[in-house]
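ARCHIVE CARD
SHELF: 3
SLOT: left
DATA:
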Amino acid sequence: MIFGKRKPKQGVQYVAKTSRLQIYLRVFSLFVLFFCATYVCVNWQKILEKLDNNRTISAFVLTNPTSFTRYDDIRDTIVKMGGLSGFFSQDIEVVRKQIETMTWIKSVAVRKIWPDKLSITIAEHQPIAIWNDSDFLSNDGLVFQLPMERLKNKDLPLLSGPDYQSNLVLENWYKIDANLKQKGLMLKKLAIDDRGSWLVTLDSGILLKLGRGNWQDKLERFATIYPQIEIPANKKLSYVDLRYDVGAAVGFTYQ
């Protein structure tokens, strides 16, 4: 028997070669893409600096009125940063965090304005009490610092205690102040010590030592005995110690 030679299937070979070529091209494309992405990531800052073409951000504007923050504060903060980069290369998050190091600033929003300016919006903590004679409390009990000379209203409640007790002291200030006003008395200062003992100072300068625990009953006791206290000549009432279960101890000082 004579068998004829089978002709190679040219179409099949062509498809196989084309498929291999496509695979090679895809692998090469992925390699090039990976290389480009790596290059951009490594040199991103340099690329942005080239886009800036040596032009730096040279001005800023405060978009809202502020009570305590001045232009000089922002300028000095930027100087401490070593200045600003250009529009493309400057990281505004760095600027925001630096400005927020001023403790009276609650939050900051920074955005860029083409070609060389920053827009800065500032929200500040508003002091509602003086804390430990040198710091301040915000309305949510946060302790912060503020140059005293920038405070317009210096007639603020005087509170003191450990910083971790700031919320508790603020909360009880409102309660004790309301309680005393009902009795015709004015609260000047409220303090709590490390052991949780309360000290109340009236606007007359009288110190009430309330101790720990429930202070309501002790204030009621003070209101009862206060009119009955006999003050010696040439002296004035200095303190009333209400840390006892009943009664109180009193102290006097020379006028």
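SLOT: right
DATA:
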Amino acid sequence: MKKLSYARIYKSQEYLESLGTIRYRSLFGGYSLTVEDTVFAMVASGELYLRACEQSAQYCVKHSPVWLTFIKRGRPVVLNYYQVNDTLWQNQQQLVSLSRYSLDAALKEKQSRFAQHRLRGLPNMTFHLETLLNEAGIKDESTLRMLGAKMCWLKLRQINPALTVKILYALEGAIGGIHEAALPAIRRQELVEWVSSLTPEPVY
């Protein structure tokens, strides 16, 4: 398995060389890939996983990727990294674009890390919502902001498929620092239309 992972690392360095010098180190039983000491991807069991961010939300909705999971104290823990499948490997231009999104988001998070705060202090953040976010691996404000409301909502929906658009309003408001009721009507409508677009229309 280690041989497969090294082969994947070298292939990633070749395909993504335009991002800069890609280095790797052992992490979580796999390997982290970094540019300028900033982690943007992981290699585990011979597969490449890109760090999820708001810009990659649409890709994740369309392709329903496999998420990187590791076992901690006997329980599975899902990380914010999605698998690069064979189809994406064959589309190098899209792979580079998504990888750049991951790197840019990681760099922004790194730059704002000093401003991290607990989720509890944000608007709309109930105990139940904070618990759901923690279960999804979103444990602080910087991660919430890095992923964006849509990606966070998608990850929460994997835990609770019955999640409503009201939670999306709450997440959007939390990031914007306002109560969900104060979200502009135009933005609320955009979010409603986005959620509606995720459900395919029935074919008769």
